[in-house]
From TrEMBL:
Keyword Cell cycle: no
Keyword terms: Heme, Iron, Metal-binding, Monooxygenase, Oxidoreductase
Protein name: Cytochrome P450
Source organism: Oidiodendron maius (strain Zn)
Similarity annotation: Belongs to the cytochrome P450 family.
InterPro entries: Cyt_P450, Cyt_P450_CS, Cyt_P450_E_CYP52_fungi, Cyt_P450_E_grp-I, Cyt_P450_sf
Length: 507
């Protein structure tokens, strides 16, 4: 008698093949009913589970080529193509019309991707991780807070900027790891905004030690989070052996937030350095429960801290290697005579604006997005031989769009797409074109985008005012870090990092 184990593998394979054939036939039938055309399919070596592409993406993530791998595939297979992601339908697109269909026109047809459910268990079910009615409630609570806050006023940033300058001066012209300083600087501002009291991680003392320990936990959390976002369920093969340690990291981050909340709850007189009350106080006055406040604050933190830190580090990295751009910026801000800029001053610095836009184009901290279809629907482009026909999207399919690849499209940025050229924005209009979306688009676009731009612009001006030379000894090309946000892994090398020379004392 032949053992069952002889037939079992073949039976499983036959089941999956028949299931895949039935699924594909159903898709073609529905696509025809919707009046859609065929889409380009990725040439899988494993057409049943798509394991070949998942493994390739996994390798690209660990080689620091995740975003570049996406760009190369779009260059080869076109703006929109379909793949099999571990047995699930996945459509990659960098067509602006498709992106806006997902984020705006057909917003109600899509929800957050599958990985978000797992992340919400650890980060909290706030505005970043929630969907549907929960998301609408979170947005209704938070949108007025962002409108009322004074975080976009430079007066809140200046005390933390002074701390940053003090630390840089303490290096006496020696190289330092700006990624670390950017993280501390951003943490101090964000905690001031959220809790009404800064962690002062740039300075010393017990509070700074706790804050730096927290930043260490965040750093440990980044690679596994990035892996999970990149390859989904396949990440468990890598993460499972260290899952207990990962939970310990998550528990440590939650404990930090809880300690901050306990501190301000116990001190009703505690207020932010700015004129506006903290996020906590505003939510508290609106009657939001402490548990939900913690979830929302954790969501706001992870939505703002890592992205702002990455963009700050990326821009300083660029300026440290582009003395020509530095000089143009210094000439533009020279009329300030070293005085801190006002919000009105920042609005009038056109070249600074161009530099920020170009940094958001080539080094945006968020390089891809995804949504999952909650019902059968369509996308306007990607079908037929010319790619201009409508395509079918089945319920459960994931749509992924790479802003990294879109922002490097020759179609929109010409032959110089790979060059850092701020002057290109003299003719490009970021608010009127349909292909530049650094802060997302539609109802889920970033609520804090104006705050982030003001903070970063202010920091650039003040750093240039305080230090006549900002340079780098590291000439290695940019390499994507193994993290959630997009930043240079080499920026974390203090031995070859950025250095700044301070002005001589005229006395």
């Amino acid at each position: 008698m032949v053992p069952l184990t002889v037939y079992l593998p073949g039976g499983i394979l036959l089941f999956w093949i028949s299931r895949e054939i039935s699924h594909r036939w159903s898709l073609r039938r529905k696509a025809k009913a919707f009046g859609c055309e065929s889409i380009t399919n990725y040439p899988h070596l494993d057409p049943i589970g798509g394991l070949d592409l998942s493994v390739q993406i996994w390798r690209e993530f660990h080689r620091g080529e995740l975003s570049e791998g996406m760009r190369r595939r779009h260059e080869k297979f076109g703006p929109t193509f379909s793949t099999n992601s571990l047995g699930q339908d996945c459509i990659y697109t960098i067509d602006p019309e498709n992106i806006r269909a997902v984020t705006t026109d057909n917003f109600d047809c899509y929800g957050k991707s599958a990985w978000v459910e797992e992340a919400a268990k650890h980060v909290g079910n706030g505005i970043l991780m929630s969907d549907g009615e929960n998301w609408k409630r979170s947005r209704a609570v938070l949108k007025p807070l962002f409108a009322r806050t004074a975080l976009d006023e430079p007066t809140l940033v200046e005390p933390h900027l002074q701390d940053l300058v003090q630390v840089i001066r303490g290096n006496n012209g020696q190289p330092f790891d700006f990624q670390v300083l950017a993280a501390r600087f951003t943490l101090d501002i964000v905690t001031d905004f959220l809790f009404g009291k800064s962690t002062q991680s740039l300075l010393g003392g017990k509070a700074a030690e706790d804050a730096r320990h927290f930043l260490g936990l965040v750093k440990d959390f980044e690679p596994p989070s990035g892996t999970f976002i990149a390859v989904g369920a396949l990440a468990w093969l890598e993460l499972l052996p260290s899952y207990r340690r990962l939970l310990h990291v998550v528990d440590g981050m939650k404990a930090f937030f809880r300690s901050q909340l306990d501190m301000i709850i116990s001190d009703p007189g505690l207020h932010s350095q700015s004129a506006a009350p903290s996020c906590f106080r505003m939510m508290e006055s609106d009657g939001v429960g402490v548990g939900q406040i913690q979830a929302e604050l954790q969501n706001i933190f992870f939505a703002s801290f890592d992205t702002t830190t990455a963009l700050l580090a990326n821009i300083i990295g660029i300026l440290s290697q582009r003395q020509d751009i530095q000089q143009q910026l210094r000439a533009e801000i020279s009329y300030l005579n070293g005085n801190p800029p006002t919000k009105q001053d920042l609005g009038g610095l056109s070249f600074l604006r161009f530099v920020l836009l170009e940094a958001l184009r080539l080094y945006s901290p968020v390089v891809s997005h995804s949504r999952q279809a909650t019902r059968d629907t369509t996308l306007p482009r990607g079908g037929g031989s010319d790619g201009l026909g409508q395509i079918f999207v089945a319920a459960g399919a994931t749509i992924v769009w790479s802003t990294y690849a879109l922002n490097r499209s020759q179609r929109y940025y010409g032959q110089t797409w790979a060059e850092f050229k701020p002057e290109r924005w003299k003719t490009l209009q970021p608010t009127s074109n349909r292909f530049f979306m650094p802060f997302g688009s539609g109802p889920r676009s970033c609520m804090g985008q104006q705050m982030a731009q003001t903070e970063i612009s202010y920091m650039i001006v003040r750093i240039l005012q305080e230090f006549p030379v900002i340079a780098s000894q590291d000439l290695r090309p940019f390499k994507e870090a193994k993290a959630v946000s997009f930043y240079n892994t080499y920026d974390t090398d203090a031995n070859t990092g950025v250095y700044a020379e301070q002005a001589e004392d005229p006395n």
